[in-house]
Amino acid sequence: MTRHFESIDPALLLSAYAQGLFPMADGADDPSVHWVEPRLRAILPLDGFHLSRSLKKVLVSDRFRVTTDTAFREMMALCAEPAGDRPTTWINPVIKTSYEQLFQLGHAHSVEVWLDGTLAGGLYGVSLGRAFFGESMVSRARDASKVALAHLVARLIAGGWRLLDCQFITPHLESLGAIEIPQSDYLRRLYSVLSDGGGAALGAGAAAAGAGGAGVPSPPFVAGDWGALDALAAAGAAAALGAERTTGSPPGYVIAQLLTKTS
Q1: What is the pLDDT of residues 48-71, one digit of tens each?
Q2: pTM
Q3: Cα distances (angstroms) measured from residue 136 to each of 80, 116, 148, 201
Q4: Cβ-based neighbours of 75, under 8 Å, separated by 6 or more
Q5: Helical pair 144-159 and 53-61, crossing angle rounded to 10 deg
Q6: N or C: which terminus of the chain carries fewer CB neighbours within 10 A?
Q7: Which residue in 39, 57, 235, 34 sits closest to 142, CA to CA?
Q8: How far, in Å, CA of 207 to CA of 17, rounded?
């Protein structure tokens, strides 16, 4: 269904994600958005991230500086820019405004990858309970998006997330461990994650039938801890140095170690 909005109400947007839906526009200048429910859904199992030797070397080298939630608007703008492999975008002003609102509410996050002081790539997405929904990923320098995804997966693992939704499969995502599953299987996983320690399920309906009879869970949902990775890295540095360390994006070797242990 196509709808015209100035922005999407945050409660409506989060409710859609809880039911396996997400909005897209047909182009940057399209004033409307439509709700999407793919027949096949891409997810990246958090214990299945493919850390290649070459990517591990890039992470450990710390050639890139990685931050989180410091340039959310800029990250969205970079994702919306046309590029050789993506001449058009589904990110219109309605999408931008709506996700900036989610970011202000703590339900959206970004991972920014910097090279020589310039934003070279990264990603952003939505967090609901212990499910993270990747929205867009971009690279303007070799390996920048891979580094962003590696940092995201490590952060989700450390923070207790259980589901990373990638929406649509691509060869790039597949090379990093993403798989494609039927939407009905995706809904079962999503509802299980949201129901873990959260509210009761809402009525039946089509979505429930597609998920094997389980109703759409209702909030409150048990949330993941976005800052857990920073605290973990800070504690390790303090133990090693015998002093407190300012929290921030962990160095690449911490990310590589965490992904090696869980893959």
Answers
A1: 999 999 999 999 999 999 999 999
A2: 0.88
A3: 9, 23, 11, 29
A4: 110, 111, 112, 119, 122, 123, 124, 138
A5: 80
A6: N
A7: 57
A8: 12
